[in-house]
């Protein structure tokens, strides 16, 4: 691995941590997808078939589909940047498949550059969300969980019947004292 690739991984991990901590739900989803993709691509890095990297192409294609879906499900701009970068990345893999003269060095360099772009767009999306005054998803999720817990507790308190005294068994001391007061019947 080159110093440029190590820097890209370090920058990406910082971006994912910031997005997870201060981002909204789309940023957290994007950070999770990118982190999983980063970890899986490190595993698939050495797996090549005839000079091609099919595992990396599949990982980047799945990321492209997820970010494409996120474009239409959120009101953020950065998933469009991530999707466009994903399209360019998958296009580079296709060019490499169609033209063996396209060097692996050019492919890896462009891939690292586009990953930097995606990570930077994610960071800027978190920054913009903060400027808009939206609360981080982490705080909102905890507040929602707390609200659900208190609602559930209140609902249980209303639904449960008050504790009723249990009927005494026939041979208990209470029953014997009641029988003796009532005339000693069986």
Describe this structure in words.
This protein is 76% helix and 0% strand. It is mainly α. The longest helix is centred in the middle third of the chain and has 28 residues, at 104-131. The chain starts with a helix and ends in a 5-residue tail after the last helix. The relative contact order is 0.12.
Which tags fit this structure?
mainly alpha; elongated; 186 residues; 7 helices
Task: Please give a quick description of this structure.
The chain has 186 residues and is an all-alpha fold. Helices cover 76% and strands 0% of the residues.
Helical residues, percent: over 70%
Sheet with most strands: none
Strand residue percentage: under 5%
Global morphology = elongated
- Average per-residue pLDDT, rounded, comes to 82
Q: What's the β-strand tally?
A: 0
What's the helix and strand layout?
Layout: H1 3-22, H2 25-44, H3 54-73, H4 78-98, H5 104-131, H6 137-159, H7 173-181
